[in-house]
Every structure is written in C-alpha cells, then in structure tokens.
Amino acid sequence: MTGTIMGAADISRALTRIAHEIVERNDGAADVVLMGIPTRGLPLAHRLAARIADIDPGFDAETACGALDITMYRDDLFKNPTRTIGTTSVPDAGIDDAVVVLVDDVFHTGRTIRAALDAIRDIGRPRAVQLAALVDRGHRELPIRADFVGKNIPTARSERVNVHLEELDGEDAVLLTKGA
Amino acid sequence: MRHLLGTTDLSREDAILLLDTAAQMAATQEREVRKLPTLRGKTVVNLFFEDSTRTRISFEAAAKRLSADVINFSAKGSSVSKGESLKDTALTLQAMGADAVVVRHWASGAAYQLAHGGWLHGSVLNAGDGTHQHPTQALLDAFTARRHLVADPTGQGLDGLTVAIVGDVLHSRVARSNVHLLNTLGAHVVLVAPPTLVPVGIEPWPCTVVHTLDQAIETYDIDALMMLRVQRERMSGGGDAFFPSPAEYSRIYGLDADRMNRLPDHAIVMHPGPMNRGLEISAEAADSPRSVIVEQVANGVAVRMAALYLLLAGEEGAQ
C-alpha cells in the first residue's frame, strides 16, 4: 500500500481528535504546554494549540507553545553528516510542573523521543510528559510509546513515510513510498 | 569543515553557519542546566605554547559545556621545554586519542603544520599562531557585531556595515583574521594605525587604511570600533620602538569620551582584551553602555562551542 495515506481532511480530523484527547486526559488544558519537535512537529504543535483553545477558551495557544530542538541530544551524531542546530524556544513561564506534550510528525524508532526526553530534562522538571504523533509507523527500537496517535500505518522498514504540511510544503498529506 | 585554521579560506556560507550555530549555543547558555551531552566521549586537547589564560579557559569552558573531556597541555614545564619537536608532541597527542587539538603557538603557521603534517587524525583549531590568524576571536567579534547591529540576525552577514580596527595591525593576528572575515561577511573594514604599525604588503588586503582615529571618525560612518591592545614591549624607548611615546599614541589613537561621542549613536565599542586602560582606551569608553567588551567574552564561549560542534559532530572522516 503506497501513495497518499492521509489527505488534508484526514489530517485535520486526526488533529481535532488528538486535541480533544489531550484535554480529556488532562482534565482540561490548564497546565498543558505543547513542545513541537522541528521541523514538522512545530506547525503541528501550533495547530493542536489552536484546536485546544477552541475547546478550552482559557487556554492561550500563543504562550503554551514551544519548540524543542533535539539535535544536540541525538545518539547518532557521529554516524551522519553534521546536522544544523535548530531553535529551541520555551514558553516564558517555563515547563516546571507543567504537562508537556511532545508533538512530532512521524513516530518511528523512538530515538527522537528519547533525545527529546533528555532535552526536556535540561530545561525543567515537568509534572508529566506525553507524546502526540500524527503517524505511528511502528519499528520501535526503544521502550517508548505514544499517548496520542493520528493514524497507525503498518509499514515495512524499507518504506518511507513523508508528512507534508501546508506551512512548509504547500499541501497537507501523508505519503508512503517504497524504499530503494 | 575539518579544521579551523584561519578566516582567509572560510566561505561566507560556513562563516554564517558558524555564527548561526553560535547563536543556538548562546541560547543554551541562558538555561539553568548549561551542559549539553553533544560531544560525550570526545577528547579535546588544549595545546598552548604561549600563555593565554583567556583563550584557554574559553575553549575549556566551551568543550566542557558540550561534555567533551579536556586535557590542558602547556609548553611551560613540559616535554616541550626539554626540546621536544612539534611533530613529537603531535604524535603523543595522537597516541592519547585527541579528537580535536586547540593550538596556540608563537610561530605563524604552526596550526597549519599541525593540521597538514599527517601527524594527527583529529581536527585542529587555531587559537592564535604568531602574527598570522586567530579565527575564533574574529568569529566572536563578528557574532557580537551581528547581534547588536543586524536586525533579525539569523542567516545574515554584516553587509553594508563599517568596522574600524584601531592599533597595532602589524603584530595583530586578531586584525588579520578580522579583515578577511568581516570582508567575507560583507562589511567594509577601515584600519587605523600609525604607518610604523601597518604591515608591508598590505595593499591586497580587502580594507582601507587611514592614519589617525579622528580622520576615521570624520570620514566614515563607523558602526563598530574595534580597539587593539598595545603591547608594552612595542611601545617606546630605544631604536626598536614603533611610536615615540605612549602619551602620543594615546593622543592620536586612543579612544576617549570625546571621540566616542562623535561616533554614530548606534555604534559599538569592542576590544579583544586584555585592555590597557588609559592607553588605547579610556575608562569612560571601556565602561560606557556602548562597550560590548564583557559580552565579547561570553560570546567567545558560544562561538567556540559552535566551532567544536561543527568540527567534531558528524561522520568520522577517512580514518
């Protein structure tokens, strides 16, 4: 099964559902901080924040959104070409005692999230950390799971999952392509 | 990038990548936990043949903030004072597993020799060689200037800015590194020095030379004024002096409150340190709000973190 797995409407519905799940799981959104993992976790975090603000008017989508760059925490820095370091921005109120929801586009091996957990630890001590991903494609290499998933996509290891987002790619789509 | 030896061969793209990476490093230094796990397991050797507390502790702080192990090797009281050659010192460091060697040497070209002698597998960072180059100092100067003078600095150079460098250009590796880097980044460089302290063969350098500070302030719209340290041994007395007296140098080239007030309002004052207060810079100028001298020191750590990251992260080369 290759080609477009999710279209714009599917992505929009999945994000709306995840937003509701986040609010439900945390009894409201009062302490929720969304940390998007660059590149595509960032616009997803902003979209989720806007939807949470629609559900819970007390939630400020602007101040409860941040970016978490994990480049310097990766475990494969010496196995790949040098990576450019991205921006990390933490809400002014910090993340101590907050519920941090990590937002990423594709949940795969779990190594990115392992690095993100280390990065979080250097920034503060949240009350809880949860994970939201638009796509879970399996093939975990670490004992890490997601709390909120847009869509589970069974894949072969050799296949590639690409998420396209309006903000960066001009369209909303999840594409599955055969590997080499 | 494999080595950082000078600014002459540094492309604009690489220079801006270094500055952008330094900006991200600087942001991490404002956190409560300032240590990053990035270079865990890597060994950085500080190899200093010349005394330099500031540069050495700046590199040491940078390496430690990135979790690298640091070995300090100073020539005084070491095997070097017993007559060991640079080659044998390098082979020793190689045997100890140095991933990067930060070298400060009194001889121009020592860093190049160390990088290209085939003695070391690791990266070489030039922390000042003779009167040749001091690239991380130039990068931290450019970083500081960009932060103050360029709106929305990420990805930008220093295009259209004018930077004046005042003092002993002849003996200054800081000036040499800065002239080339600032030019690469699009700035116009004005050198201000007595004719005796301008190197022979300066004509091909991408800069303008004037001989009094007043002339520079009147002629150019200076955005950043960089004062160089006057080294005491070059000051006066005897036939090998480069200017008649410290008082005369101070009168023509020193930055006092009056000259500082004639600079444009937004202009910043820089100095690589250590300063001679009352000689090349007055206390009023050094302590004024325009002075970014203390900030330069903090930025030095961020720039050196960026250089270590860009040289050491990434795939190991053909080893």
Automatic annotation (TrEMBL), chain B:
Transferase keyword on record: yes
EC code(s) of this entry: 2.1.3.2
GO molecular function: amino acid binding; aspartate carbamoyltransferase activity
Keyword Cell cycle applies: no
Gene3D superfamilies to which the protein is assigned, alphabetical: Aspartate/ornithine carbamoyltransferase (3.40.50.1370)
Assigned keywords, A-Z: Pyrimidine biosynthesis, Transferase
Domain Aspartate/ornithine carbamoyltransferase carbamoyl-P binding: 2-146
Pathway membership: Pyrimidine metabolism; UMP biosynthesis via de novo pathway; (S)-dihydroorotate from bicarbonate: step 2/3
Domain Aspartate/ornithine carbamoyltransferase Asp/Orn-binding: 159-311
InterPro entries found in the cross-reference section: Asp/Orn_carbamoyltranf_P-bd, Asp/Orn_carbamoylTrfase, Asp/Orn_carbamoylTrfase_sf, Asp_carbamoyltransf, Asp_carbamoyltransf_Asp/Orn-bd
Source organism per UniProt: Demequina lignilytica
Assembly mode: Heterododecamer (2C3:3R2) of six catalytic PyrB chains organized as two trimers (C3), and six regulatory PyrI chains organized as three dimers (R2).
Protein name: Aspartate carbamoyltransferase
Annotated residues for binding of carbamoyl phosphate: 54-55, 104, 134, 137, 273-274
PROSITE patterns (alphabetical): CARBAMOYLTRANSFERASE
Any Gene Ontology biological process: 'de novo' UMP biosynthetic process
Reaction it catalyzes: carbamoyl phosphate + L-aspartate = N-carbamoyl-L-aspartate + phosphate + H(+)
Function: Catalyzes the condensation of carbamoyl phosphate and aspartate to form carbamoyl aspartate and inorganic phosphate, the committed step in the de novo pyrimidine nucleotide biosynthesis pathway.
A single GO cellular-component term on record: cytosol
One Pfam match: OTCace
Binding site for L-aspartate: 82, 173, 229
Family: Belongs to the aspartate/ornithine carbamoyltransferase superfamily. ATCase family.
